[in-house]
Amino acid sequence: IKWQVPPLGTLKLNTDGSSINNLCAGGRVAQNHIGEIIMAFSSSFGTGNSAEAEAKSMHLGLRLCTERGLSISSMELDSLFIVNCFNDLWDPPWAIEYILRDCKNLISPNVSISHVFREGNGLADKLASHGHSCQ
Predict the structure, then answer these.
(1) 114: phi > 0 → left, psi -120 to 50 → alpha, else beta; which?
(2) Fewer Cβ close by (within 10 Å): the C or N end of the chain?
(3) Alpha-helix runs per DSSP H in 37-121
(4) In degrees to the nearest 10, what's the CA dihedral of 18, 62, 2, 9?
(5) Stretch 40-56: mean pLDDT
(6) How many Cβ atoms from other residues are within 10 Å of residue 88's Cβ?
(7) If you ran DSSP here, which 8-state letter would residue 133 be given?
């Protein structure tokens, strides 16, 4: 399993969240159709669980893309739980419901949000791990 390039002329956003001892961090990377990194970030989010870390990482990634005028065509996460909550297949916990609602406001309706196994989300995973050392 490896990262798959997005269609020609488009950007893909991969995000990942991490919670260790109730401390959350996240990583995000936007890449183009030839795999060039357009944007990559690590962040610490303070206290919370893994679902909150995943949701906050996705939210910040979408906000950063929007602020920089980057239009993404797809987004991948290795959290099936968050993907299913975002796609209205499952009810999200109240702690992340507002975050997911705001995420939906940050993207156009044609952007696909899908699950990818951790191996296909390696760079975002490494950035999330690095986020635990960020202030």
Answers:
(1) beta
(2) C
(3) 50-67, 80-86, 94-106
(4) -170
(5) 97
(6) 10
(7) T
Using alpha carbons only, what angle is made at residue 96 by residues 106 and 92, rounded to the nearest 5 degrees? Answer: 100
Tokens of 1: 């399993």
What span, in angstroms and rounded, lies between the C-alpha atoms of 66 and 11?
12
pLDDT for 91-103, tens place per residue?
999 999 999 999 9
Q: 101-124: per-residue pLDDT in tens?
A: 999 999 999 999 999 999 999 999
Residue 32, strand partner residues: 11
- Does domain 11-132 bear CATH number 3.20.20.80? no
Report residue 11 as tokens.
Answer: 């950007």
Residue indicated by tokens 């196994």: 117
Paired residues of 47 in beta bridges:
23
Joined together, the tokens standing for residue 60 give 């910040």
- Average pLDDT in the chain: 96
Q: Is residue 135 pLDDT above 80, yes or no?
A: no
Please tell me the distance from the alpha carbon of residue 72 to that of residue 90, in angstroms, as a whole number. Answer: 24
pLDDT of the residue at 1: 81
